[in-house]
Amino acid sequence: MAACCVGRVAAEKYRLMNNLKRKKILAISYLFPNSTQPNHGIFVFNRLKAMSKYADITVINPIPNSPVHGKIDKFKPLKQVAYLANMKGLDVYHPRYFSIPGHLKSIEVLSYRLAVLSVLKEIGTDFDVIDLHWTFPDLPTGSYLSKKLNIPFNVTLRGMEAFHLQDSGLRKHIVAHYLKKVSKVISLSEEMAIKANEISQTRSKTTVIRNGVDTDKFYYINPISCREKLGLPLDEKIILGVGALIYRKGFDLIIKALENLLIQDGLANTKFYILGAEGPEGDYRTELSNFIDKHQLQKM
Q: What confidence tens digit (pLDDT) does each residue in 198-224 have?
């Protein structure tokens, strides 16, 4: 009897240890930094790096490629991205997939999958969950692997553009179709959670989790001390915009609003500062400068 009890206890301990063992996560994301674009999707890297404290994570970030890419300035540097990189402890694979810039995007459903499978053929398929950080062409590949490996697949919605509603092609329909098949949806905002539910009925499997903050890097400092350090007048009211200098960030909307804002009582000394650099979608600095000139806000 005693031996039997000991056996049951040992079995229970083994079960608990099995449940507590580090999970193995396969993270797949079209959006991710690489050696030539260190800030491209840096928020995906930051989250996965934080998660790596609690799970073993392998990242696959397929890189678009075609004969055309070598002839387009913004794509040329991608040729230099190594197949395998270690980013602060994360193993990141960069297989190539066939893509024609701006055309025939639906073919990427297959070429993206083949690129991911080429990595898995090399490293194996011993994973507990598939973690996607973009929608297209990630979702069809995630769904395929989920069935093939019999493991769940999750996706994080990181912006309204992830639904591809602005596209005239098939991408928005592909995204809507595969969102229905996802095991779990993580949305960075309630607005995106509502939109996902409208197009794919995902409310019951959606959790809203906003982007985290690294409090070692971002923390409160007395505003007066900050202004003195940066040489900013203490009597100014400051609006700060942070993001890639691309059209959809909406910096032009703030600039236009300044016309009405500056005539309000007590707001004549308001200044708008923009912190950002060229993004993968282009460089909007010239347009912003022209917009400022048009609205005669150069000295504001």
A: 999 999 999 999 888 888 888 898 989
CB count within 10 Å of CB 223 equals 11
pLDDT, tens only, 243-253: 877 777 888 88
- Count of domains forming the chain: 2
> Which H or E element spans position 128?
none
Phi, psi values for residue 155, rounded to 5°: -140, 145
Query: Are the beta carbons of 140 and 164 closer than 8 angstroms?
Result: no
Burial code of 51-80, b = ≥16 C-beta within 10 A, e = fewer?
bbeebbbbbbbbbbbbeebeeeeebeebee
Whether residue 85 sits in one domain with residue 26: yes
**Domain membership of residue 62 as a residue range:** 22-208
Q: Which CATH number belongs to the domain containing residue 191 in this structure? A: 3.40.50.2000
If one counts every other C-beta atom within 10 angstroms of the C-beta of residue 149, the result is 17
Q: Are 224 and 234 in contact (CB under 8 A)?
A: yes
Q: Which residues contact 267 (CB under 8 A, 6 or more apart)?
A: 237, 261
| Interior angle at CA 19, CA 23 and CA 93, nearest 5 | 10
Number of H helices, E strands in the chain: 9, 12
